[in-house]
User: Fold these one by one.
Assistant:
Number 1:
Amino acid sequence: MSEEIDQSENSKQFNALLDTIYVVGGKWKMHIIAAICSGNHHRFGEIERRVQGITPRMLARELKEMEMNKLITRTVYNETPQRIEYGITEYCKTLVPVIQSMIDWGTLHRQKIKEK
């Protein structure tokens, strides 16, 4: 019986890990979060300039996915021409410790690889 509980708990943990990787993984999401975190609200073109190498189509896709996952907000202003701004949510700020842990591990890993 305890083995079943352990497998169930492992499965839950693995699924939680997969969820995290899905939401913040990939080539661009961390770059976009970093670009948006530096200030209150940013327009599409500004984010595109800050995230070097991303195409407009990919940026639009990633922003839509990040909005769906409640990491960013999208505010449309009723102006001519229309203005749209993106910002991070309070929920996205809960990723800060995760990102810091990744930075710490990356620093350690780089040092480890440089050792002879």
Number 2:
Amino acid sequence: MKLGAIAYLVRDYDEAIGWFIDKLGFSLVEDIALSPAKRWVVVSPPGGGCALLLAKADGAAQKAAVGAQAGARVFLFLHTDDFARDHAAMTAQGVRFLESPRREAYGTVAVFEDLYGQKWDLIEPRVTSR
């Protein structure tokens, strides 16, 4: 088994698609109309891995959770094989980093916010030998 996708609450399908594609370089994998108000929208990061199912918030509880799916914690971890390259590209695209890059025991990392204020880690994992 593998984790195929994570449901990610959004305010609007098109604004979220635009942000993930333009700011993070994700690909649009699927965009299927299910009804006049509901779509099956999947985006995926450039290196593959787990995709995001963009789910338009419906109702007060879901709308309140947009941008706060993990409370105030980092929710998702975007791995890179070249931190400096991707940090520079994301910064140039207007992605808001909340801190300067730092080295930790597990790799190089910096926290950024997405279009809804949800926190993510951009991380280049430390290479370990086995």
